[in-house]
User: Fold this.
Amino acid sequence: MDDIRSTFHDLYGREPECSATAPGRVNLVGEHTDYNGGFVLPTVIPQRTTVELARRPDGLVCAWSANVAEAASQYHLGHEAREGRWIDYVQGVTSVLAAAGHALCGVDIRIDSSVPLGSGLSSSAALEIALLRALRSAFTLDIADVPLARLGQRAENEFVGAPCGVMDQMACSLAEDRVALFLDTRSLEFERVPLPAGTDLVVVNSGVSHHVAGADYATRRRECEEAARLLGVPQLRDLDVKDLDRLAGLPDTLRRRARHVILEDQRVVDAVAAMRAGDRRRLGDLFYASHASMRHDYEVSIPEIDLLVDLARKDPRVHGARLTGGGFGGSIVALAEEGTGREVGERVVREYGARTGRQATVLVPAPVDLDPDPRARAAPAREP
Ligand code: ADP
Ligand code: MG
Assistant:
């Protein structure tokens, strides 16, 4: 195995030609709405994925990641084949670029990320977008940021086999710090909406990792498609709160899934209004309502996440908290009074540790030294 301390030069005996980064993301509200054609409201986190790269004269791709305990992987361009592990994200990107008519030659790649893997903060899209940006720059590809996000999603859907919507890649490609991306996932129209003044976002990673490619996510997707079919609409996006009565005829599970999606779309619209009005309490209430809906109607929360939300709620400095990301593990996002975020997060982590024996981590507000020298880093965990 290559050592964590490997630099690009250590790995490939030369310097990289270019490097690009992309951030992780945290979704504020609008969960499981993207594959239903609905609304989402993500923003970026300070943690980022960096891809360094240099072209090779042959058709070989060599890739190494500081975040997985493995030697470098290799494959030939044009011979991408799914292996069921992390290199599929790299193979997926080169394969969709070729399918879209972009000519590449071989490359050496070094990946390093401070976005935790499998924690609902979109390390997968951060990797896809950082790699696409690096390739765009190395091969002067003419791809704008929205099509770039689409390519990332295609890599994940068609190659990796994870049926994610487009939110993650759009957020990683287009969102900005402290500005949320109000995105219509059907038209891909978006507006940038600043977070309300006087607030801290707090992101706490439960330490329980999920797998978006897992069966539960795909099941939810199928349930939504089935509900839409029974209701006679192309997607659940085509219904709104005035249609809630129509859900009465659905089987119980589908009724609850559809109710979550319809109300969650409305919560995104309401959250944008609250942010524009600077109404922190209203925004916080929408966080709690979204969490309750994900817990009871959509059933994607787990006891550890519910505990984190409850611990945050006990703090009078917190306006709202909820599961963020696809669920079945991952992270919570809370809205706290400005200047209190780190303290709130650390208190939640302490009490969570005492109750569960698990080590949670506060990710935002960011630690002071976000991008430590990889040489100083602890050894990487095995890929979850
Ligand atoms: P999330 O996107 O919420 O972090 P996913 O299950 O969608 O979770 O994606 C996580 C997977 O993406 C990892 O298990 C790994 O295969 C791949 N991945 C993401 N970031 C990296 C990285 N820096 N190095 C190697 N693989 C990565
Ligand atoms: Mg992902």
